[in-house]
């Protein structure tokens, strides 16, 4: 009878592959210092780590300078003004693949101001001033944004400059399915190899002289 021990290497390899898919490294979208990408445009695209994010400021303009990123109202089209997000300004971000939003980093946030974030189909959340010069918000729960959904940032009580945000890619079910199929194939190969080896071992054992 074949024991589980014979299949341990295959099971370990499958577990490692599945774990790697579920723990993708975070991809950071740094938004400051990119006037050529954002300034004077109401929409812009930025690709980092194979993920493309599309930014939409509605009827306003995106702006980026050496330290900040934000939105200027429709009357201000001067390059590199690095405005903040505030008032009725809304930043909508979509992605070309399914992602989890894991972090948001902002500056110029005071105790009376909040970041209003709507991530995918989740309810809107309020991110309050942390008291630090740079406010970093890490999300421990899943904040998935599917293709066709959006990551929306607004302001309440004032304005703030968006520095960066981070996402992780979400493996497609098909990819996980292929890994599972590969694991089954590997297990079957191990089983066939063990089955062929067992009769030979029994034959060799029968030829040993009796004591």
TrEMBL record:
InterPro entries registered for this protein in UniProt: Ice-binding_C (IPR013424)
UniProt keyword list: Signal
Domain Ice-binding protein C-terminal: 169-192
Protein origin, superkingdom: Bacteria
Signal peptide residues on this chain, from the entry's feature table: 1-25
Pfam families associated with the record: PEP-CTERM (PF07589)
Protein name per its UniProtKB record: Ice-binding protein C-terminal domain-containing protein
Organism whose genome encodes this protein: Stieleria marina
Lineage of the organism: Bacteria, Pseudomonadati, Planctomycetota, Planctomycetia, Pirellulales
């Amino acid at each position: 009878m074949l024991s589980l021990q014979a299949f341990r290497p295959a099971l370990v390899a499958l577990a490692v592959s599945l774990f790697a898919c579920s723990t993708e490294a975070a991809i950071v979208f740094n938004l400051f210092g990119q006037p050529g990408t954002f300034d004077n445009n109401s929409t812009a695209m930025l690709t980092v780590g194979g993920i493309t994010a599309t930014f939409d400021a509605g009827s306003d303009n995106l702006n980026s300078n050496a330290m900040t990123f934000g939105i200027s109202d429709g009357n201000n089209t001067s390059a590199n003004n690095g405005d903040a997000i505030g008032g009725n300004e809304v930043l909508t971000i979509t992605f070309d693949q399914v992602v989890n939003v894991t972090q948001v980093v902002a500056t110029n946030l005071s105790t009376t101001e909040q970041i209003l974030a709507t991530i995918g189909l989740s309810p809107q959340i309020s991110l309050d001033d942390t008291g630090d010069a740079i406010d970093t918000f890490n999300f421990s729960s899943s904040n998935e944004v599917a293709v066709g959904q959006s990551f929306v940032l607004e302001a309440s009580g004032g304005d703030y400059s968006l520095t960066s945000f981070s996402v992780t890619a979400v493996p497609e079910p098909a990819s996980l399915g292929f890994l599972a199929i590969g694991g089954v194939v590997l297990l079957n190969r191990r089983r066939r190899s063990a089955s062929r080896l067992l009769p030979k071992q029994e034959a060799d054992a029968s030829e040993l002289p009796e004591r």
